[in-house]
Design a protein that fits this description.
Oligomer: single chain
Strand content: over 45%
Number of helices: 1
Strand order of the largest sheet: 1-7-6-3-4
Radius of gyration: 15 Å
Mean pLDDT: 93
Helix content: under 10%
Low-confidence stretches: none
Largest sheet: 5 strands, mixed
Number of domains: 1
CATH topology: Immunoglobulin-like
Structural class: mainly beta
Number of strands: 7
């Protein structure tokens, strides 16, 4: 997945490793805190992230010891979608204290090709 483009068959299970870079960490990977969440959304070409037709949320409990998260599409996520080009994005929400929340786009809109 060097280009980050996802190709999958409608109704199949598909998983991939997902992580957030952190240049200040010794191994270069960000570790989610108790207050963080990583969101993966699949949208139609001109649809905003907030209206994603597939939504996934990952927290600290989902993160492996090596800093990766296994993002997974299950058959129910895509079986009823029409074949074609969709887009996925990944965003990190961090709580930076009691009054401030930060949202960072980790993967900007990238193609997800759904085949029949």
């Amino acid at each position: 997945m060097a280009t980050n483009i996802i190709n999958l068959v409608r109704g199949d299970t598909f998983s991939f490793r997902l992580n957030v870079d952190d240049n200040s960490a010794e191994d270069g990977l960000y570790r989610l805190t108790d207050y963080d969440a990583l969101y993966l959304g699949v949208t139609l070409p001109h649809q905003p992230f907030e209206h994603a037709i597939i939504k996934k949320k990952y927290t600290k409990a989902d993160q492996l010891k090596d800093g990766n998260i296994i993002a997974k599409f299950i058959p129910e996520d895509t079986v009823d979608l029409l074949p074609g080009v969709y887009y996925y994005s990944v965003k990190l929400r961090q709580n930076i204290g009691t009054d401030y929340e930060s949202v960072t786009t980790v993967i900007n809109k990238t193609k997800l090709v759904l085949n029949d």
